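Quick question, first post here. What does this chain look like in 3D?
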Amino acid sequence: MNPPDGGSADELPGIAPRLRDLRRNRGLTLEAAAGRAGLSPAHLSRLETGRRQPSLPMLLGLARVYGTTVSELLGEMPPERDAIVRGAPLEGTGGDGGGWLYRQAGGSGRAMQALRVRVPYGTEGDLVRVHPGEEWLYVLDGRLRVVLGETVHDLDPGDSAHFDSLTPHRIAALDLGGARLLFVHTLLQSPTADLCLGGGAHRL
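> Answer (accepted):
Ran it through. Tokens below.
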């Protein structure tokens, strides 16, 4: 017998129990998960029991709620990730990037992004940023000023900072030669979390 929306029950084998298990593993009630995904609890219940097949927009919404990917919801195996990232010259953001240079220093498709960064002197010292997530940085050379809320911290080579990026923060180089650092931040499903480095910045 076909489900009410016309799809056969085995169109997406295994997706119903995966949806149920993911919700339970995240500690979400049917009502809470459905509300975050923009569905009714009854509809989500039918998806979890296989009586309805989810559309792509539903899968995208549920993947965001559960912090996973559509591929995982469908039971597809992710490709093996390369654990090694070879060194390469730093590159600029271009346009209005303010002279920041950076290069990806970690693998892609993970829960955080690692970068090597060069911060030029005198750029964006007054630009305050606030967004979800966490940030960690380690000063390789030069001196760096990190302002967290109303507190000013001047960092020397070997110093590091690890903070909740919902704290209003500013980063600026104190030396004319700029500063070089390692920078790690969490990747979230939010445009504001793409990259907290320079106006118009983009991932490499």
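Residues 3 and 63 are 23 Å apart (CA to CA).
The two ends are 49 Å apart (CA to CA).
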